[in-house]
Write a structure and sequence with these properties.
The protein has 312 residues and is α+β, with helices and mostly antiparallel strands. The protein folds into 3 domains: 157 residues, Maf protein; 73 residues, Dna Ligase, domain 1, CATH 3.30.1490; 50 residues, no CATH class. It is 26% helix and 24% strand. Strands 2-1-3-4-5 form a 5-stranded mixed beta sheet, with helices on both faces. Strand 11 and strand 12 form a beta hairpin. The longest helix is centred in the C-terminal third of the chain and has 18 residues. The radius of gyration is 23 Å and the shape is globular. The protein binds zinc ion (2 copies). One zinc ion (ZN) binds next to loops.
Length: 312
């Protein structure tokens, strides 16, 4: 992992580039942003950002982002994922004195509409204190191994382990119903399991500490343990970079992009209005300039099969 000291970072940040004209067209050339991560997201994010907007990314590895919540649940997450990502990015910026910061935040759970399918929502934020902007993008994907199972031995887990892509993807093991102990909640969680021997030992220990004799085996969703998540983070970094490549036509601030919607598409058959928006609102966070444009996906009418009136 690439770790820079605070001093090193701030030097990189003030290291300038070109004249004013050059700066407005390529505002991030020669600059460095700090990515707050404990879990090795640098590889997924740095390359697309450097290629797209010439911004270098450095990480701070000495910040305990677990204080803002963990997937395993020992620390509860408060606030929205975006709010957590902003807090995380700010921690790194404060620590390093850097005026540019990045962070991502993932959440996992059952798909909102499709039963038995898991969903992964990842949000990324880029804070630029020079422009006074916080640009964010998010992705929802069903390409995730998020899951859990109960077992008393590895033998019962063949299908589950295949679905979870173990051992290329890490696991977490804990007692299913933890016996109260002096150590307190979370003391018996084993994270980052990557080998069969580790898994076997962890299940053995966990089931003995569980009132029902069962171990709870969960997918480890931290980025460095989960290549599927890394892939989504890379896609999201590309999405963010594309947005930062768009500059406001009024004040040339980077990050011009979609912030809302308006209007309603009407059904191509009966003409009645739907809940699906007809136009996208793109705006600039800095000068508040707004543009209303037709949907970029080209959809101009609603398909009658999605119409409440034609197909109730
Ligand atoms: Zn209709
Ligand atoms: Zn603007």
């Amino acid at each position: 992992m690439n770790s820079l000291s605070a001093e090193h970072l701030s030097q990189k940040v003030v290291e300038g580039s070109g004249g004013d004209k050059e700066l407005s067209a390529r505002p991030y050339l020669g600059k460095t942003a700090v990515l707050t991560t404990k879990h090795g997201k640098l590889n997924a994010i740095a390359l697309p950002v450097k290629a797209g907007i010439e911004l270098r990314i450095a990480t701070t590895t000495d910040i305990d982002t677990d204080q803002l919540g963990t997937f395993a649940g020992e620390v509860e997450r408060l606030g929205t994922p975006l709010a957590t990502a902003i807090q995380k990015a700010r921690l790194g910026m404060e620590r390093t004195g850097c005026t540019l910061g990045l962070a991502t935040e993932g959440s996992f759970g059952p798909h909102p509409f499709i039963p038995f399918l898991a969903g992964h929502q990842e949000v990324i934020v880029f804070i630029d204190d020079n422009f006074g902007t916080e640009v964010s993008e998010s992705i929802f994907s069903t390409q995730t191994n998020f899951s859990h199972a109960l077992a008393s031995s590895i033998g019962e887990l063949a299908d589950f382990l295949k679905r979870c892509r173990f051992p290329s993807h890490g696991l977490i093991v804990r007692p299913n119903a933890e016996i109260q102990s002096q150590e307190g909640y979370g003391a018996t969680i084993v994270k980052g399991i990557e080998t069969w021997a580790q898994l076997e030992a962890a299940i053995d220990t966990a089931k003995k500490k569980s009132t029902d004799g069962l171990a709870r085996i969960e997918t480890d969703m931290r980025a460095h343990m989960n290549p599927l998540r890394q892939r989504i983070i890379r896609k999201l970094a590309i999405k963010l970079t594309r947005r930062l490549m768009r500059h406001c036509s009024q004040c040339s601030c980077p990050g011009f992009g979609i912030t809302g919607s308006e209007g309603r598409l009407s059904c191509s058959d009966c003409g009645s209005p739907s809940e699906t928006p007809a136009r996208e609102i793109h705006s600039c966070q800095k000068c508040k300039f707004k543009e209303s444009i037709l949907r970029q996906d080209g959809l101009r009418h609603l398909d009658p099969k999605d119409c409440q009136r034609c197909n109730p």
